[in-house]
Structure to design on (457 residues):
């Protein structure tokens, strides 16, 4: 730790005025640390001041001048809000706040978006909306195709658009096909776990695995062996209740712009099924699409700013929902339940669903089979006292229908028994519940679904 006098000397070395070419952004969030990274035009020393308030009180410094700055804030208290700012020469960044990683027993939020290249205005609109729900979020996953060709100028544009978001939420991207031409710049700009091309991150009760489709991933490859080993470790770790994967090309899509990636379907989906992966996030298709196969939600969230893909093929039996729009996905993890919302730049929620933990290591396994989603409908979806719920399933089996409040606490159980195929009608008497947002969550052995219900008074 430097004294204030020493820091003043360090900063006095600078003669020329520095300018940030990459504003400070967060990288490689771990259980107790985070990396702050930025770049300057001129050679500068680097200082990060941080603490629980804007008075800061802690600092990390690197005295050797450079244009690239990567400083580690270590020893962070879990699930705690920190303020920080960066000083390089005469330049000081604006204050920003982030939340340190959540421990096992705390809820947390993460965001997912992708395919942000080309249309800066659309990209900015998506990021601006993400910012409204970003405070306190743990991670921002990017499903690839950040820029058109990965040039320095394009990364400059990317970080200018995302600077306010990534100053507050650690970025965890995975390479897309548009990153392939310049992986040197990928490694320059990102500080990620492992080899930085495929890797694992941990937050709260979840494991996150980034899979790179642009180096070998089929059975027997190094990456396939790595992924299976990571998934086995998840299964052996009782603290891991949710497993998420993100990769660029979806194995299940009905877009007319890009076909499903059948290599992923053949070589990776069986692993996802065997080891209880809950949600696989994808991009490449510039739209939103959700497919449900063998209990796994495949969520394509490629509406980040690339030219939208408007044309669709006929829906498949595994198609749940699809919409051409700019969007991102917000994910809230509350214990064993995960709530997802796909949100447009104007704030409209175009899709929402909930999943229960799939218990890593206890997945169903076996070959891929197509399933029809069990459905739940609320009538009316905005109610004062009584909500009628219709459950529709085409398979016999055990069904649970529970009501959760907006932060995931169960507040009612309407069904927990085997039912026959067909439609079943239930009533939720909500007169004793306070006004607000609730979710009716339907869970079966074949998958789960949820609908929001708004109670008014
Ligand atoms: Fe792509």
């Amino acid at each position: 730790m430097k004294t204030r006098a020493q820091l003043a000397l360090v900063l006095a070395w600078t003669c020329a005025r520095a300018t940030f070419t990459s504003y400070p952004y967060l990288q490689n969030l771990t259980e107790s640390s985070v990396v702050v990274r930025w770049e300057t035009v001129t050679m500068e020393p680097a200082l990060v001041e941080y603490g629980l308030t804007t008075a800061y009180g802690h600092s990390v410094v690197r005295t050797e001048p450079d244009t690239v700055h990567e400083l580690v804030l270590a020893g962070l208290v879990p699930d705690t809000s920190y303020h920080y700012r960066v000083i390089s020469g005469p330049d000081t960044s604006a204050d920003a706040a982030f939340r340190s990683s959540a421990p096992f027993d705390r809820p947390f939020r993460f965001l997912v978006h992708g395919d942000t290249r080309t249309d800066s205005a659309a990209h900015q609109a998506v990021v601006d909306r993400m910012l409204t729900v970003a405070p306190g979020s743990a991670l921002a996953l990017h499903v690839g195709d950040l820029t058109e060709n990965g040039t320095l100028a394009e990364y400059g544009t990317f970080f200018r658009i995302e600077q306010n978001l990534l100053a507050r939420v650690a970025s965890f991207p995975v390479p897309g096909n548009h990153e392939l031409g310049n992986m040197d710049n990928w490694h320059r700009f990102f500080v990620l776990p492992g080899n930085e091309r495929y890797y694992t991150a941990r937050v709260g009760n979840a494991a996150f695995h980034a899979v790179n489709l642009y180096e070998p991933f089929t059975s027997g490859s190094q990456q396939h062996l790595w992924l299976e080993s990571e998934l086995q470790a998840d299964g052996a770790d009782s603290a891991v209740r949710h497993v998420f994967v993100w990769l660029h090309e979806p194995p299940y899509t009905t877009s007319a712009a890009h076909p499903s990636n059948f290599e992923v379907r053949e070589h990776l989906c069986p692993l996802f099924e065997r080891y209880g992966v809950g949600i696989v996030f994808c991009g490449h298709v510039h739209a939103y699409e959700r497919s449900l196969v063998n209990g796994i939600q495949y969520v394509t969230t490629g509406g980040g700013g690339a030219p939208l893909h408007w044309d669709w093929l006929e829906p498949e039996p595994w198609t749940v929902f699809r919409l051409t729009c700019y969007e991102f996905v917000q994910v809230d993890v509350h214990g064993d339940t995960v709530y997802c919302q796909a949100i447009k730049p104007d704030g409209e929620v175009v899709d929402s669903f909930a999943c229960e933990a799939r218990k890593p290591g206890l997945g169903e396994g076996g070959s891929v089979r197509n399933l029809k989603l069990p459905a739940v409908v609320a009538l009316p979806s905005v109610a004062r006292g009584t909500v009628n719920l219709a459950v529709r399933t085409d398979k016999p089996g055990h069904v649970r229908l529970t009501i959760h409040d907006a932060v995931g606490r169960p507040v009612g159980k309407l069904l927990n028994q085997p039912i026959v195929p067909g439609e079943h009608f239930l009533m939720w008497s909500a007169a004793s519940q306070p006004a607000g947002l609730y979710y009716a969550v339907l869970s079966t052995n074949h998958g789960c679904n949820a609908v929001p219900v708004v109670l008014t008074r």
